[in-house]
Amino acid sequence: MDILLDYLKAFAVGGLLCVLGQLLIDYTRLTPARILTLYVVAGVVLGAFGLYQPLVDWAGAGATVPLTGFGNALAKGVRDAVAKDGLLGVFTGGFTAAAGGVCAAVFFGLLVALIFKPSDKNK
Q1: Packing angle between helix 32-48 and helix 67-85, nearest 10 degrees?
Q2: Can you say how many angstroms the Cα of residue 100 is from the centroid of all Cα atoms in its chain?
Q3: Number of domains within the chain
């Protein structure tokens, strides 16, 4: 029964973040690219102040998978690297923390590009 509750919490938090993004698209003049950037920056800011980690602990993948989770991972990476390496960690921490996710995104993007034939939507 606990696993079902975990799924429900992840679905609720991830769904809420998606609903918020959709509302921003529908009712503001923000472009999708700006909303995505806003989500990453919000994750960085909330992570930097330690406000995002309790949400991650409660909702699991519902908080780590969306772009706010990526921003939180960047902030956590920088915070950990600064504690370990000092000022140099400001420059290396974000890259180290996000390297796995960025590498996976590039790899799977390449894989999809090789499998499917891209075409112009205007045709």
Answers
A1: 40
A2: 13
A3: 1
Q: How far apart are CA 77 and CA 67, in angstroms?
A: 15
Distances (CA, A) of 52 to 45, 84, 114: 9, 22, 37
Residue 123 lies inside a defined structural domain of this protein: no
Q: Is residue 23 part of a domain?
A: yes
Q: Which domain holds residue 66?
A: 2-115
Helices 32-48 and 2-27: angle between axes, nearest 10 degrees: 130
In a domain, 78, yes or no: yes
pLDDT digits over 11-63, tens only?
A: 999 999 999 999 999 999 999 999 999 999 999 999 888 899 999 999 998 99
Closest CA to 65 of 85, 43, 41: 43
Residue 121 inside a domain? The answer is no
How many helices, marked H, and strands, marked E, lie in the chain? 6, 0
Report whether 14 contacts 61 (CB < 8 A): yes
- What is the rounded CA–CA span in Å between residue 41 and residue 45? 6
Longest dimension (CA), the chain: 54
| Residue 40 · residue 68 · CB < 8 Å | yes
